Amino acid sequence: MDKGKMLSGLFIMIGLVVLGIMLPRAVAKYRSFDRTVNVKGLCEKEVKADNVIWPIVYKVMSDNIQDIYDQTSRGNALVVDFLVAGGIDADEITVSVPDISDKLANEYGGNNRAYRYIAKNVVTVCTDKVDEVLALMSKQTELMRMGIVTVGETWENPVEFKYESLNEIKPQMIEEATKNAREAAQKFAKDSDSELGKIKTANQGVFSIEARDSNTPYIKRVRVVTSVTYYLDN
């Protein structure tokens, strides 16, 4: 028999033996990558709003348009003085153009109103002085003593408390959420007689900011949920 053919056959046989030994290990190693656990980590934090938009709404009524103008000018000046005395800067106050309705020009309303003209006036505060605004809100009776009857919060003119310093607490919250996710994964691995491996995928999640409750809208709850997938090792 040709010596070259014998050597070729021998090498092929050795290769097949080695392949037979290595293939099961390779398959087992490949299948180990399919063993994963997906966990979620939650982090919540309560913070105080650091910005507020407060519309102060009041109405004046009269049968004389000049009187409406005079009442509006006086009322706006009183409201602005009230705000400035409470610690709000003048450049944080906006006085809107009055919205005047004329019952005689209203085709869809009745003519049973006591006054012909009604002017809706809005003086808006936009500031980061949340504590000062909260204090002023509790003193609105002072405006009533001056003849300014404010309208309660409506869907058209809501008070908005905001938290705009999210970037300052993001890293800490993501770290805590990821830590909580890893602790959950470690518990799962332990219960399944496995070892926690490396991270396969990770999703930071979306931050949400909402009022803690309806009674204290200036207290915000910041929330983030991270999703992490880990490999499991035997």
Strand content: 25-35%
As a whole number of angstroms, the C-alpha radius of gyration is 35 Å
Question: Can you count the beta strands?
Answer: 10
Percentage of residues assigned to helices: 25-40%
Number of helices: 5
Provide mean pLDDT, rounded: 87
- The rough form would be described as elongated
Structural class: alpha+beta
Low-confidence stretches: 26-33
* Assembly annotation: single chain
**Helix-strand sequence:** HEEHEEEHHEEHEEE
The biggest beta sheet is recorded as: 6 strands, antiparallel
Distance between the termini: 50 Å
What distinguishing features does this structure have?
10 strands; alpha+beta; 4-stranded antiparallel β-sheet; elongated; 6-stranded antiparallel β-sheet; 234 residues; 5 helices; single chain
Quick overview:
This protein has 234 residues and is α+β, with helices and mostly antiparallel strands. The chain has helices at 3-32, 65-85, 130-137, 141-145, 166-191, and strands at 36-48, 51-62, 93-95, 99-102, 117-127, 150-151, 160-162, 195-203, 208-211, 219-233. The chain has five helices and ten strands.
Note down, in words, how this protein is organized.
With 234 residues, this protein is α+β, with helices and mostly antiparallel strands. Helices cover 38% and strands 32% of the residues. It has five helices and ten strands, in the order αββαβββααββαβββ. Strands 2, 3, 4, 5, 6 and 7 form a six-stranded antiparallel sheet that branches. Strands 1, 8, 9 and 10 form a four-stranded antiparallel sheet that branches. Strand 9 (208-211) and strand 10 form a beta hairpin. It starts with a helix and ends with a strand. The model is unreliable at 26-33 (pLDDT under 50).
